[in-house]
Each structure stands twice: as C-alpha cells, then as structure tokens.
Write a structure and sequence with these properties.
heterodimer; A: 114 residues; mainly beta; 6-stranded mixed beta sheet; 5-stranded antiparallel beta sheet; 11 strands; 0% helix; B: 113 residues; 7-stranded mixed beta sheet; 4-stranded antiparallel beta sheet; globular
C-alpha cells in the first residue's frame, strides 16, 4: 500500500462546476499538507499548504484536512478551463525528523470543458 | 517573489556527453532539491542540500553529480547518461528542510540519445 493514495482520473467537468480532489494517507506522522498544480510540461506550482486540520481558503480554492480520517481535499469553485492541469497532493512529517522529503500522490488530471 | 529559475529549458545529449543543469533562487532559502519526473508520474526526490551540504542522496547513480556552490545556486552534473534518464529535472527550494513548503522551478526537459 502506498503512503499516499490519489485517484489519477482523468476527471472531466463542465466550466463553472465545483471540483473536489482528494488524497488519503496512511502515515499518521504527516503533519504538513500541500497541493500543487502542474500544467503540461511545466514545473509544479504550489497552490495551498496547511499545517492543521480544518479548512483553508484562498480565492476559489479551499484545502481541507481531516487528520482523524487521514484524508485531505482540494475544492475548486467556479472551475475554469485554465484550471485544466494535474493536481498533486504532497505531505511531510513534522519537526526534526523532517528531512525535507515530500511524499507525493500520483496526481489527478483535471479537464474543465468550456 | 517565489521564483526558482532553471537553465537550460531543454537539453539533448548523447550518452558520452558531459553537461550540467543549473538552478538559482534568490528567496534566501537554505534548502534546495533535485527531483526527476517521468511522464504521468509524480516528482521523485534525488538529492537534498541543507545549508549547502548534501543531506540526502536517494541512491542516485553516480552518473548524476550534484553541487551546491553557494546558498543560491544548485547544479546537477551529468555524465554517461542512459536513454532511460530522459525526463523532466526539477529543482525546488524551501526555507529549511523542517516544516516548510517547497517551491519548484520550471524544470529542464532532458533527452538522452
């Protein structure tokens, strides 16, 4: 079993839809959670990061962490064709045992159709 | 400014060539990373530098040789690569290795012929 599971999709939605992207994880030591967006043939772009359970909102994006269920989500409201990309979740452990190593999910490919 | 720059954007090299990839950041970050990414896969960590010292080598073959000349620069020297080394090579940086989010550069797309 992988430490981080993410459905690769593809996920296709109409413009304006609410998108829900999810990852589950097995290591309870993970304390830092990130979402990256990666356009084709480009580097990953950090979208959201959070260190605690609950919700964090930034514009049309909301990151949600449920540590009790070991489940994180990224919601995109009013999705646009420009949101079409691969979304990667990533997480790491806390404190001195953090070597800088991020554990990535497989990435979910999202297509928003006009 | 959260910019990490990488040069070149594209590189084609033969199996006997020697080439180098360059990465630069001016955010004052003290940790820098090299990742390799194959198509439709997540980035795979290769090396971590913390305060200009190599702290992690993820069992990368010796044909890849990293160098951190100063806190802003990171190089990856390539020699005698194989076609299966063709990939997108990504550099990232963060404030430190503990508890900090990483910012990625645009990558160098490497093709080994």
């Amino acid at each position: 079993q992988k430490e981080v599971e993410q459905d690769p999709g593809p996920l296709s939605v109409p413009e304006g839809a609410i998108v829900s992207l999810n990852c589950t994880y097995s290591n309870s030591a993970f304390q830092y959670f990130m979402w990256y967006r990666q356009y084709s043939r480009k580097g990953p772009e950090l979208l959201m990061y959070t260190y605690s359970s609950g919700n964090k909102e930034d514009g049309r994006f909301t990151a949600q962490v449920d540590k009790s269920s070991k489940y994180i989500s990224l919601f995109i409201r009013d999705s646009q064709p420009s949101d079409s990309a691969t979304y990667l979740c990533a997480m790491s452990v806390r404190g001195s045992s953090n070597t800088g190593k991020l554990i990535f999910g497989q990435g979910t490919t999202l297509q928003v159709k006009p | 400014d959260t910019e990490v720059t990488q040069t070149p954007k594209h590189l084609v090299m033969g199996m006997t060539n020697k080439k180098s990839l360059k990465c630069e950041q001016h955010m004052g970050h003290r940790a820098m990373y090299w990742y390799k990414q194959k198509a439709k896969k997540p980035p795979e960590l290769m090396f971590v530098y913390s305060y200009e010292k190599l702290s992690i080598n993820e069992s990368v073959p010796s044909r890849f040789s990293p160098e951190c000349p100063n806190s802003s620069l990171l190089n990856l020297h390539l020699h005698a690569l194989q076609p299966e080394d063709s990939a997108l090579y990504l550099c990232a940086s963060s404030w430190g290795t503990s508890n900090y989010e990483q910012y990625f550069g645009p990558g160098t797309r490497l093709t080994v012929t």
